[in-house]
Queue: 3 jobs
Job 1
Amino acid sequence: MAKPLIFCLFLLFALSNSLFGQQNTIDVDSLMQLAISNAAKNNPQERLDHFSYTTYEKTIITDSLERETNAHSFFTEKVSKNTFNAHHGFKEEVLGFNMAGFDEPRYETLGITLQSRSFYDEDFVIFNYRYAGPLSSRGLKNYNYQFVGDTTILDRKSLAIAFQPKRPQTIPGLVGILYLDTQTLAIQKVHIGIDDELVARIEQYYKYLPEEEVYLPHSSKLYIEKGETSKRLSLFRGKVSVGTIENNPVKEAIEGRYLLSTSYNANFDLSEKEKLEHPNLAIEVMEDADKKPEAFWKRYREQALTQRDLNSFDYLNNIVETQNIERRLAVINNFGIGYYTVDFFDFDLTYPVKYNNYEGLRLGLGGVTNADFSKNFRLEGYAAYGFKDQVLKYGIGGGILLNESHGAWLSFTYNDDLQEVGSFNYLTDRRVYSLFEPRLVNIT
């Protein structure tokens, strides 16, 4: 694991101890208490009523960090407009989404938090795992701080503060160096290292906007390696993980040990020029996000794609097609919510076998057509028979898609069945799937 990226943080610590060990005369705890107290003034989400910026993000999974490797095991790039206002918080509008190997992008990957937007948060999240924030209100309780020295960043004086968790076994924490503006104690740059169940490196850089005297995130680099323990790093709702991917239908497609993600922010705008549509959505994917031409991507990329990046498209297209990855992922996703997919029909797994005191053993079969049948309308139905009351029950129905972006359907159903006395079935109830429902045994 002798990679410069891995050892740079430890080298920085070593240099800090040797160069600045005799200069540690600052009361660092008082300094950090002041920095934490000033966080509300320095955190753009507290300081500003509104701001926005565009982000280009590229994420890869690979089994080797050597340049001569032909292709990555996973490649995706994304362009988003991130908008914040004090009333609704952050909203991400995905303008472009490009995922090698898949005809239709797997949108569930958008819900994965690779890393938090801000180091001012109470908890800093890395790949959906939470760590105590070094600049949170609990910072002094959870971290030991050490003054490293001073430097200059973006023509402004900076203080370098090293930190590490006091009780890593009790409260998971980060190890790294914060670079704080000498005048405001705002974050200018952050280097993070983790070497426990999760092996990770993070570098975040901030851009100073003099008109508002505030720093906004400018770029970020994230490196994750699967550790030696059982902590999972999963994509596709647990169907693909970095490192060990045992008993997995997509193991042959994505078997990389390393995940690397880089992002660059640009087009900073502090004015509220236009009304935000659908502000209550945290993430909204624009209708043509997966159909952007190459000219669109060149406009946002900070660097051109490498040859390994380009090779990944043909490589992953071949893997996904020959091993029918998209189909197998769809089957597994549906099974998790109680359906088993066969061609254009999803069999409902809540129907086959049930038991209650009134019907005795109840056997049934039912389901609904899926998008392979039609994306604009669906048919559904079921039939069930109770061996104790010897009565056939059934239901039929259909639906028409009204609005694809909102998932709005107009549906009609007719059921001739039993219903538990005093129970209610609301249209907005979430679907609950359980292979066995023991409470039904007590129902008379």
Job 2
Amino acid sequence: MSGLILVSHNQHQLSTLASIYDRILTRRGGLWISWDGKKAPPNSEITRDLAFRHGNDYDTLSFPLTCSELEEGYRGYIHQGLWPVFHQRPDLAHFTPQSMHSFRQLNEEYARAIAEYAMPDDAIWIQDYHFIPVAKMLRDAGLTQRIGLFFHQPFPSGQMFEAIPDWRWLVESLLCCDVLGFQTAQDMNNFLLWVESEFRAERMGKTLFRIHGRLISTGVFPVGIDLDDVLALQESNSCQFMEQQCRERLPENTLLSGGHLDDSAGLPYRISAIEVLLRQHNHYAGNVMLLQLASSASGHAHRQQEISHDLENICGEVNGVHGMLNWYPVSYLNHHYSREELAGVYRASRVALVTPLMAGMSLMAKMYAALQDPANPGVLILSQFAGAAEHMDGALIVNPYDPDAIADAIHTALKLPLRERQNRHARLMKNIHLYDCHWWADRFISHLMNEEGESNTQVNQSIVLGARFSGRARY
């Protein structure tokens, strides 16, 4: 039987995205290939074992990565190099020959695992820019299966992409894919305009082009969440206990601020907005609090300490000027909370500030809205540069670089009457229901399986996804 291979960074990480992959594969079946979260022992590059496990709903294949692949390839080339470029900050990018070498090794290990376990009629769905080189490596190994790559991150303009040293080898791999998926129309257009001008691609349709004899389909597939997962979080004891604790101990006007400790989160602007809010509306003194959650496990290791130190200084300044003996306006917590505990904090927060300077999915925005009580919902304030902003009707959209605009949005959110909050929440939930994670998977996979009727000169047979496949054979 034919099937689906999903390739991601780490299936063992307790995150919303990992939960989404699990829900998709539980419904569809398939093979999930990822890092196992462990470090391989020294000198194990040649003899590394692949751990295959057959599950009731889907199978998994995992393996360790070497210290070099993790430190230089993942935290170096990806976090310190590709990430700034994809988030329009090439001035922060740092590439080295060693990090590129380790990045290649990391992708070679993934390509080896895929090639060893892929069956001839499997379709391969690669998640994010971590694994751009895998597509060409698989083609070089002789695999002709349909390959799709989805970008969870924003896709930069062509000129920005060319800031990457030796960028052409990455593009060569992108052009080995059959489907390229993007979070927003702007991301897709950045890619299409670039390949048309740089590579003289032949446009075959609005989102279809031919280059090097291959038809490549592109599309906008915003990532959604799983509402069954949301319900399970709501019903958990940890969620209910945390919600009760927050409602008893925090001010009624609690503003939730999350995000990774990285340069695109825009956290200093949010804290500055609190200072503006209190300066312009002194009646909030004593009854509003920004709850800034930023776990030390989130973000990029090479910048965490510096960014955390800067945040502590900014929080200290605001609290020193506006705080009282029994109240301070900003609470900065870097404790790690479980997903269930975070769900309780989300439910108890009157407003959520999701205002990254640049972001792809912004799953936090969707989780916050879905976790609200429809009878008395909170208000979502969302950055105009978040990927979710294109389809989150009902949110208050702001410029994340403008503390005054954020402060105005907070003031507006706190004084919205119940009926207006309910109306905005209903509009948010309409899109969250329509475009959930299963819609995302169905749309992308229908393109990947060539169910749209497009032919591909590189593929001699159509691929149809089965509901399940019970086992795998090597070839």
Job 3
Amino acid sequence: MSARTQRERPSRRPFPRLIAAAGLVPAAAAALVLLLGSPLAEPRTPDAPRSGAAASPAKPTATARPVRVDIPGLGVSAPLVDLTLDSRGKLGVPDPAERNLAGWYRDGVTPGSPGTAIVVAHVDTPTGPAAFAGLDTLRPGATVDVRRADRTVAAFRVYAVEEFEKSDFPSTRVYGPSEDAQLRLLTCGGAYDPAAGGYQSNVVAFARLVSVHPPESTVPGENVPHDS
């Protein structure tokens, strides 16, 4: 099987350079294929992600630009930059010089809106571990908060984390449309083989919107209960 919900971290060259390219799959769903090496052929019917307790879906919210992704279980709080396609149809990636940085595909779904939103980050850079270094250790039930420009927080709950070989990447399943608000977090994974073009797999976290709420107050004393 090319998908695994649990795996041992493979040995890899310390902090190799990441593949800095992505492609667009010309499929009916306009499924996005992130990171060079993902295949173009897709199964006719996408499977449902496996494992993990199902989260109760929340009602999708209005569009608002995402500005930061927080993954409390990994200690991640990374600014989000816009990612777009270049003239060759390749999706850009966050600047590898910035280790704590993630990006979202701005021409796709906004996190919290109906459909499947895409957020990507490096697993490591030439100088050390990057924002999604621990994505493969995330477990179902973990929370992912996307802070948005309208000062709301779209809270997602992870229901599966899987690794896919790039030679058998299920793009329709990962990027296909959804009636509710979904989120996919992606990074590189698997063995690192410079001769074969770098990392040989992708790690994907599948998450579903569970709530949209205002951020916790940062005003001192505002949420502190008073004595009666």
